TrEMBL record:
Its main location: membrane. It is found in: Cell inner membrane. It comes from Bosea vestrisii. Residues 13-135 form the Tripartite ATP-independent periplasmic transporters DctQ component domain. This is TRAP transporter large permease subunit. The keyword Cell inner membrane applies.
Length: 597
């Protein structure tokens, strides 16, 4: 029911934005109420998806550490994880209800009570509490669920009490509490909220209502509407078979090389990146389509999974990129400039992966006969609808024809029209795509919202100044700052989700980079590249976990198999760092690129 409700909200959200875009370009004026209504619908989508973000595969739970424990300790850790989740859920539920009761006035354009936005989070929190406890009952037992509820209520009471113990940096308490929750296997967004709440007992400056207000404000940004639309466009392309056309075109280009099928997976990922923007979506598609073909050609299953996971990281580098949208929302950097920088970084990473695949594949003969020019032309024509999507989106954003959100909505419309004209979609597949995209978008949105109060604590505690001191310990030169910042990111990325790491670390590191004379756009691109590499590293390695889960393989085996590709990506990261630090005038826009050439 929640998935269907989320799908309905996403469908209405798409219609609202498309109506505004159509009116703007056909009649020359927009709909004054469309932006505000779209933001409110996005808030509702996140609130509705909160239960799914706590109890489904979207929960971003870190269970690698817990799985190393003996069975009795694992059961205790599971109860504690649910208790932390209950604490975070209670903050959303009761805090949302409190703010809804206190806030007055109406929205600027719609004339709706402002309290509704917070009431939706209170309702979503209440539903999440029910499902969290239900999950505990199904996974363990009624007594375990009851203990988790009581412990969660105890943590909530502690967070709202005056302990008399004050620390100079309450964000440290929040970080330690959230980190403990993450290691125990609590869902990441609720662990962040619980950590911020607990810091209030030790001098934190965010009472419960303020936490909810920051969370709602974190998801109330028009730019963030692009995330569900890009996710939906990627789902439609996959369901409509256009992604498979990209694979055929890639095979015609590089299938005859050594390790031809693996290189085909790489080129297909590059092409799919221009239409999806989601590495997880690409990894899921590759695990279902490319991995079985690799295994059938003689690749060991773990190596096939490693290749699919490795090449999937390009989706959040090559535009359009959801990671760059999150970075722009956190730092106010230009989305268009970040996307152009993503093309440069994507080319370097693609070359590195191609070399890594060439050197690491042994004992497999999978080269296909060289495709004729006619075969390549036919496959190119077949892939044009999917390739055209990426071109339309990126060119439209970069040259200011459309905003990022408008471009993402047009991407959905483009995917729908293209698939319907090719008769590769029906009502059932469209609805399934809406359900899946809505759930994923809600999980990402909740993470962004949960990171907002945490980021506020970091700002109040002036952690950015301490971070600046850390990354300038070897001097304030561009190269020293770049290398130390990447060391910080490499360590943090081992334990933080990619989205959370961008939201929390980018605002802290960017001022130090600018002070060292680094270009903020180039530094932002390197930051995203660094964190995307962690999609392949234990223990969080989301891309490895997605692929191994679909292929029913041991994540540990895939983590071992991906090491050669990981090494090639780290070399590419080092090259990018040297280029940015030693060459501050590296082109960051198409106009500058042509001038430089």
């Amino acid at each position: 029911m929640l998935e269907w409700l989320g799908a309905a909200i996403l469908a209405v959200l798409f219609l609202v934005v498309m109506a505004a875009v159509t009116r703007r370009y056909l009649l020359g004026d927009g709909l004054v109420w469309s932006d505000e209504l779209a933001i409110w619908l996005n808030v509702a989508l996140v609130a509705v998806g909160a239960p799914l973000a706590a109890t489904s595969a979207l929960a971003m739970r870190l269970d690698v550490v817990v799985n190393l424990l003996p069975v009795p300790a694992r059961r205790i850790a599971a109860v504690l994880a649910e208790a932390i989740a209950v604490h975070g859920v209670l903050v959303l539920t009761l805090g949302g209800a409190s703010v809804a009761a206190l806030v007055g006035g109406t929205s600027t354009v719609l004339g709706l009570p402002e309290s509704l936005r917070f009431a939706t989070f209170a309702i979503g929190g209440g539903l999440t509490l029910v499902l969290v406890l239900w999950r505990a009952v199904l996974a363990q037992s009624w007594p375990a669920a009851l203990v988790a509820l009581l412990l969660g209520m105890g943590l909530y009471a502690l967070a709202n009490s005056a302990t008399g113990f004050f620390v100079t940096t309450p964000s440290l308490v929040a970080g330690l509490a959230a980190g403990a929750g993450l290691l125990l296997g609590a869902p990441l967004p609720f662990a962040l909220i619980a950590g911020v709440s607990l810091s209030g007992a030790f001098g934190g400056l965010l009472p419960e209502p303020a936490i909810v207000q920051n969370t709602v404000a974190g998801v109330s940004k028009f730019l963030l509407l692009a995330i569900p639309f890009f996710l939906l466009a990627g789902e439609l392309l996959t369901a409509g078979g256009l992604a498979e056309r990209l694979v055929r075109f890639a095979a015609a280009l590089v299938g005859h090389f050594r390790a031809g099928l693996a290189q085909t997976a790489l080129v297909a990922s590059v092409l799919f990146s221009g239409a999806s923007g989601s590495s997880v979506a690409n990894a899921a598609f590759g695990a279902k389509v490319m991995a079985p073909a690799l295994v059938a050609r003689g690749y060991p299953p773990a190596n096939a999974a490693a290749i699919v996971a490795g090449v999937s990281m390009l989706d959040n580098i090559i535009p359009p990129s959801i990671a760059f949208l999150i970075l722009a929302a956190a730092t106010n950097l230009s989305v268009g400039s970040l996307l152009v920088g993503g093309f440069v970084a994507g080319a370097v990473l693609t070359l590195a992966l191609a070399i890594g695949i060439h050197l690491s594949v042994r004992g497999v003969v999978d080269s296909a006969p060289r495709a004729s020019n006619a075969e390549r032309a036919r496959s190119f024509v077949g892939a044009l609808p999917a390739i055209g999507l990426g071109i339309v989106v990126v060119v439209g954003i970069r040259f200011g024809v459309v905003t990022v959100t408008e471009a993402s909505a047009l991407a959905v419309a483009y995917a729908l029209v293209a698939c319907l004209l090719l008769r590769s979609l029906n009502g059932a597949t469209v609805l399934a795509s809406l359900r899946k995209a809505a759930g994923e978008a809600a999980a990402v949105g909740l993470l962004i919202g949960a990171s907002a109060p945490f980021a506020f604590l970091l700002a109040v505690d002036r952690v950015s100044e301490q971070m600046a001191g850390l990354v300038t310990v070897l001097g304030g030169g561009p190269l020293a700052v770049m290398l130390l910042a990447n060391v910080v990111l490499l360590i943090a990325g081992l334990f933080l989700d990619i989205g959370a790491a961008i939201l929390l670390l980018a605002p802290l590191l960017l001022p130090a980079a600018i002070a060292a004379g680094l270009d903020p756009i180039q530094f932002g691109v390197v930051l995203v590249v660094n964190l995307m590499i962690h999609g392949l590293t234990p223990p969080l390695g989301i891309l490895v976990l997605v692929v191994s889960g679909i292929m029913r393989l041991s994540p540990a085996a895939v983590f071992r198999a991906v090491l050669p590709l990981l090494a090639s990506l780290l070399v590419a990261l080092f090259v990018l760092c040297l280029a940015v630090a030693a060459w501050p005038s590296l082109p960051v826009s198409i106009k500058e690129l042509f001038r430089w050439l």
